[in-house]
Amino acid sequence: MSLRQKIIVFDGPDGCGKTNISQALASDLQVPYFKNTDEWKYFIDDPSYFVNALTYGDPYFLSYLKQTGASVIIDRWYASEWVYSRVFDRPTRMDMLDAIDQRAAALGTKIVIPYRENYTGVVDQFKDVITPEILETVHNTYAQFAEWTECDTFFLNVDDEDLTRELKEVHNFLRG
To answer: What is the pTM of this model?
Structure first.
């Protein structure tokens, strides 16, 4: 492993294996893995949680990363707020999203977006809200996010669910 800081984010539609792939990569690179396990507690009942996390938690986290040079593999981050606030038409803070993205890009953050060609049959824990049709919209909105962000992004097709191939492609992306 290089001594250079690695900030790698896995963000994308539900049901694409972000957790499995990011945990496997964390093991490969011997880099800590982080997932905000509270995110789904607030998804339906208190969407203001995400604006507060963006406004207060994300700048704090970025200060930590910058000051310590710590490496981390993150399972969902601010890209989710950018995408899901649009898909579900909920308020967000674009000024903070811009600031967080600029700071993340300045630290060399890489974003991997796993996706499927078709979301038919994908069942989410919030199946009444996150339907295959919504996942298509989420997918398309991640494509818009990739055009907007200043961070390097990589779209990873996961249709075959071949973790060995997926990791190889992610390693190639990280090498440049």
So the answer is: 0.92
